[in-house]
Amino acid sequence: MLKLLLFCSVVLQLSVHAAQFALKRPFALPVGAKITDSSESGKGWKERGVVGVTFVNAQKQFRSACAKNGWQFVHAVPLTLSVGHSLYTWRRGSQELTLMLWRIDVGRTGFSWGVSKSGK
Question: To bridge 103 with a disulfide, which of 66, 84, 87, 118 should be the other Cys (CB 3.0-4.6 Å)?
Answer without folding.
Answer: 84
